[in-house]
Write a structure and sequence with these properties.
The structure holds 2 protein chains of 2 kinds. Chain A is of the alpha+beta class. Chain A contains 29 helices and 22 strands. The chains are: A alpha+beta, B mainly alpha.
Chain lengths: 873, 110
């Protein structure tokens, strides 16, 4: 046995022992262990010897062997009893300060919990699928085909999924599906249901827990259907629906072959039933023709564990030729790329997403708000605690004289802050539970309250709460324990009074700056949302309601519908149109127009409508005329353009010129037919006639709101008679318009609530400090009064210092919030200008609130009878 | 007054100290314990018992010579004191007396 140079016992273990062991034991112990180590090496391997060395070392961590410093002669928990008692007494002795501390911390922690739940929910998207980490969505990049701000599309053609599986062995499975809305009959009533038309690979890739039946068989058979549990219950009640027949669209009988669990809300698409994609005629013909250019589908692939999906993306260039050929008549081509399934919710903002996605920026924002609020509460605690040191000075002094060690004092203060944190944490959890439904309402989500049962989050919260407690207690604890007992007993706390005040003042300024920034931002967000709601859009949506229809060519009945509806005195106007000026998606390329010698191409949005559309929405013409019954030829190839289109085509005037195989009869003033994130783009309006194959659209009505019940009843019965196949769904244009901005609205409310909270927490902190400050100066104020100071003098004396701080915060907040809001507003094509008065208003308001907070206390102090304040010792 | 009764583990350790003589230090005692009883024990556990019995006055100790396979460190050699010996004998006497009262294996009950 020889000690080779490169072999030695684990040094970390040795160092640990040297650090922990009593110095007088170190030599013999380390000697013994080393002897054992060499013996082990001879008998077994180095690895085992190392392991044994660790085992032996850890076995030395016994009371007899480790340093007294770490393990005092006294029972260290003995004093805890006393600390706890004192902490508890202090809590109740100083009711006001305890209240402020607990309120601030509870609110802070409650926000933290809520925001953590929100973030956890957003992160939980697609977690139902067992193979979620290996699933990718196919998407397309079409450079040159920019639509609504991006040239990336979440759509795919039929051939890609089968081609991938065929060409690349690493692609384990690929599925193509599409979503359609169909009509179903129940007790003579008709409902729209959202369906998923899928091929047989669907269940190889995605996980949809099966309740009963055979899903694979169901997807192979064109005449069967898979229902989700809630749809099964809606149509068949509690009994098992397997083998029963359900009617979809007129005269399509499907047999229920399987039932799956409902689709959870945290998935990027949603449906109530699944049928074989072979039921979709367009798919059948696309498959037969192997069409690469018809992108009516979504495709997903399953890749092996640990496979880099960028590899596959590179290999997908083999399809370039097919795509080039397919897009030969279009001014752009396409390339496929993959998106990890789990990234879709937070990172994907493509065209034609199946459901509006979340946004990672909102997550970051939520995190920063949570941290700011938590910091505000933390600062409150620290400020109050440092300020109130003096009162504890004698206690600390006495403890020190009686032999308290520095570590003990630190642990006493930490224990106190922990106590407050734990109490606050309890309150915060309860509060969060109460408030979660409101948050869900606000965000339009279904976040579950999963604290218990979810150990990760629970442990996370506990760690957060403990860290919070430790952090907020640390500064006070270290400060208090570092003072010599004589100074402490003499109440000469700080060597440098100014330093401590500077520290506290910095914190106050930080706090108010954050609160004021949030407040200014929330006012600006409110203004922008108001601006959107009231902006003159170029058309009139007041008192407009509409009924959507689908899968129906109703043009043959258009005049009957119109005449019958107009029989009710409250229905003033009726128009049938393919799109409302809310969110027009239909866009296409136009190449043919008078004077287009160099074959330019222009993207133009299109709306098909009737004679009454412009009149109903009160869209003014700047040139030419509307479609008219006096010109029977209007129903064929006549166009009305908007000003943007005329400009895009390079025309001065438009009327009479040829366009797209027809001619232009009029030009309308620009109006917003899309959300305000987009500027007004070229569009044309053409006539909606029986031959156009647009089987969807809306019946819009301008109504008089008097006697609303009878009006709706009339609309329902009329439409029910003329087109019984269409489910009756009446919508208000105003509401639909508001829905377009739902995510901004939610964001706005979210922001408002949390910024109010922040301001509130900052104010109660200030209130606590001022109260304390005045208590300290009670005697001084009394003496000043005796010497002739007026109430005003005294109020001025007390408030001046604090107000200066708040004013400074307001000044600091201006550039910060201007910068932040400017970058938010840049996302809007139509936005408000940030005006200076907002800053003045909010800054002034903040100062006023601070003044009210301070003033109340200072007036109380100033009007107190000096006799009372001076006599007390 | 400290407890003078011996536990089973203490008794064995004490005996081993006597057996090992000049070689009675924590590591050797632990090794010997393992080979004699077939039970695993950590050096720390042995050391802790040794130091406890030192406090009770059953053992005294002195530092021995350094050696290379200990990284040049010295070892602590333990030695039984008179009271340690007395405690051992007391334990042995108690056992013997109990064994003498124990009915032999040949006697069958009931």
């Amino acid at each position: 046995m020889s000690a080779q140079k490169d072999i030695h016992p684990p040094q970390l273990a040795t160092r640990l022992l040297q650090w922990l062991l009593k110095p007088e034991l170190a030599e013999e112990v380390l000697g013994d262990l080393e002897e054992k180590y060499w013996l082990q090496i001879d008998k077994t391997s180095k690895r085992k010897a190392d392991l044994n060395y660790w085992y032996q070392s850890l076995n030395y961590l016994r009371p007899f062997a480790i340093k007294r410093l770490l393990f005092t002669d006294l029972n260290p928990f003995f004093m805890f009893n006393s600390y706890f008692k004192i902490a508890w007494r202090n809590l109740f002795k100083q009711k006001l300060f305890s209240f402020i501390n607990v309120t601030g911390m509870s609110l802070g922690l409650c926000c933290f919990i809520l925001i953590a739940l929100y973030i956890q929910y957003e992160m939980s998207y697609e977690s139902q699928h067992e193979k979620a980490d290996r699933i990718y969505r196919l998407a397309q990049h079409q450079p040159g085909n920019e639509f609504r701000g991006t040239d990336r599309f979440a759509i795919a053609p039929v051939p890609i999924a089968p081609s991938l599986v065929e060409r690349f062995p690493e692609v384990e499975a690929a599925t193509t599906n599409t979503q359609l809305t169909d009509r179903f009959w129940l007790d003579g009533k008709i409902f729209y249901e959202q369906g998923l038309y899928a091929d047989t690979a669907l269940f190889d890739i995605f996980t949809y827990p099966i309740i009963e039946g055979d899903v694979q068989a169901a997807l192979r058979d064109k005449s069967s259907i898979i229902l989700t549990q809630s749809m099964a219950q809606k149509y068949f009640g509690k009994a098992s629906p397997i083998g029963k027949v359900i009617e979809m669209n007129p005269e399509r009988q499907l047999t229920v072959k399987a039932v799956i669990e409902d689709i959870p809300d945290n998935q990027h698409y949603d449906f109530s039933y699944i049928v074989s994609i072979e039921n979709y005629e367009e798919y059948v013909s696309d498959k037969k023709g192997w069409k690469w250019a018809n992108n009516s589908y979504s495709a997903y692939v399953l890749l092996p564990e640990g496979y880099d999906y960028h590899e596959l993306e590179k290999k997908m260039s083999v399809f370039d030729e097919d795509l080039k050929y397919a897009y030969r008549e279009l001014p752009f081509t396409a390339r496929f790329f993959l998106q990890p399934l789990k990234d879709i919710r937070l990172y994907s903002q493509l065209n034609f997403e199946r459901k509006p996605n979340g946004d990672i920026r909102y997550i970051y924002l939520a995190i920063s708000i949570a941290i700011i609020i938590l910091l505000l509460a933390l600062i409150n605690y620290m400020n109050l605690a440092t300020a109130r040191f003096r009162q504890r000075a004698r206690e600390v002094g006495v403890r020190k004289v009686l032999g308290a060690r520095r570590g003990q004092l630190v642990s006493q203060f930490l224990l106190e802050s922990l106590l407050i944190t734990i109490i606050s944490f309890g309150i915060a959890t309860g509060l969060a539970n109460l408030l979660l439904p409101l948050l869900n309402d606000l965000l339009g989500l279904t976040i579950p309250f999963e604290l218990i049962g979810n150990q990760m989050i629970l442990i996370g919260f506990l760690i957060a709460a403990l860290t919070f407690g430790a952090l907020s207690g640390l500064y006070p604890a270290l400060m208090s324990s570092a003072v010599s007992p004589v100074r402490a007993l003499k109440n000469k706390w700080f060597k440098h009074q100014k330093e401590s005040r500077f520290f506290r003042n910095t914190l106050i300024v930080g706090q108010f700056t954050a609160a004021i920034v949030l407040a200014i931002s929330s006012v600006l967000i409110y203004q922008q949302l108001q601006y959107i709601n009231t902006k003159k859009l170029g058309y009139n949506r007041d008192q407009v309601v509409y009924v959507p229809y689908r899968n129906q060519n109703i043009m043959a009945k258009a005049s009957t519908i119109r005449n019958e509806l107009l029989k009710h005195p409250n229905i003033e106007k009726v128009a049938i149109t393919s799109a409302l000026p809310l969110n027009t998606y239909n866009q296409g390329i136009v190449q043919e127009w008078e004077g287009n010698e160099d074959q330019r191409e222009v993207y133009v949005y299109r709306t098909r409508t009737d004679y009454h559309y412009l009149d109903l929405f009160e869209i003014p013409l700047v040139e030419g005329r509307n479609f008219s019954l006096d010109h029977p030829s209007d129903s064929m190839n006549t166009y009305i353009l908007n000003e943007a289109a005329v400009k895009a085509l390079g025309w001065e005037t438009a009327v009479g010129k040829s366009f797209r195989g027809g001619k232009v009869i009029g030009v309308v003033k620009n109006f917003h037919f899309q959300p305000l994130d987009f500027s007004i783009e070229p569009m044309f309006i053409t006539f909606y006639n029986e031959t156009t194959s647009y089987y969807y659209g809306q019946i819009a009505m301008k109504i008089n709101m008097d006697d609303w019940a009878s009006t709706t009843a009339h609309i329902q019965s009329t439409l029910g008679e003329i087109m019984p196949e269409i489910p009756f769904k009446l919508r208000y244009m105003d509401e639909s318009y508001a829905k377009l901005y739902a995510s901004e609205q939610r964001f706005g409310h979210f922001f408002n609530i949390f910024s109010l909270l922040a301001l509130f927490i900052a104010c109660i902190g200030l209130f606590g400090l001022v109260t304390h400050h005045i208590m300290q100066r009670t005697k001084e104020i009394g003496i000043r009064k005796v010497l002739g100071a007026t109430v005003f003098n005294i109020v001025n004396l007390v408030t001046k210092d604090f107000l200066k701080l708040v004013a400074l915060s307001a000044l600091l907040a201006v550039p910060l919030s201007w910068w932040g809001m400017n970058s938010w507003l840049e996302d809007f094509a139509y936005r408000i200008e940030i005006s200076w008065w907002v800053f003045a208003l909010v800054g002034g308001l903040a100062i006023a609130i601070a003044l009210a907070t301070i003033g109340l206390q200072s007036i109380k102090a100033a009007t107190a009878n000096p006799v009372d304040s001076i006599q007390s010792e | 007054m400290k407890e003078t009764r011996l536990g089973e583990f203490e008794e064995i350790i004490l005996l081993l100290v006597g057996i090992l003589g000049e070689e009675a230090y924590a590591f050797k005692i632990a090794e010997e314990f393992e080979s004699q009883t077939g039970r695993a024990v950590s050096i720390g556990a042995v050391h802790s018992t040794l130091s406890r019995m030192g406090d009770k006055g059953f053992l005294k100790s002195k530092m021995g010579e350094p050696s290379a396979n200990r990284g040049g460190r010295r070892k602590r050699i333990y030695e039984i004191t008179a009271s340690g010996e007395a405690a051992l004998r007391k334990a042995k006497d108690l056992r013997l007396s109990l064994w003498s009262q124990y009915p032999g294996f040949s006697i069958k009950f009931g």
